[in-house]
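dude i think i finally got it to work??
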Amino acid sequence: MFEVLEFVYDSYWSLAHCPTLPALHRKLNALGFGSESILNALVWLEDLQIAANEPSNQPPEAADFGGGACIEPPTTSRVLTAAEQRKIGTEGWGLLTTLALAGSLPWNRMELVIDRAMLTPGHTLNLNQLKLIVLMVFWSLNPLTEVVLHESLLDDNTAHAVH
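look at this
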């Protein structure tokens, strides 16, 4: 599934620029991705598209992206459930909190990342899988995400298109 998501991220400017899911399915199938990976990725992308369109996940204003009230940490602490701890892992939680505290991942979007992570198949995510989920969340919400965030998350020396 993650190979499919990585291909989609690298190939399209944003979620809004992706072909329809049936057309994307045909393309991915023609490229030789496995049927189960394609199906899992397309269901995940469809759910991401729905979540990205929810008002709580939209930036307050285009000019206020990355600033304002959505960056401020809540006055309460976020505690992961046991299932979230197993899925995200200690290293993954460290990444998310570091991004949030640095102002790169608004707290409301961290919730969307956690939600998306929980909807992936398998057990604990590795750090690269979680990084891809973070990128996909930003990609679905705002294709103009800072290049620095992309570069810092894509440090595995893999060639990626920076949007």
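The chain has one domain: 2-153.
im so relieved honestly
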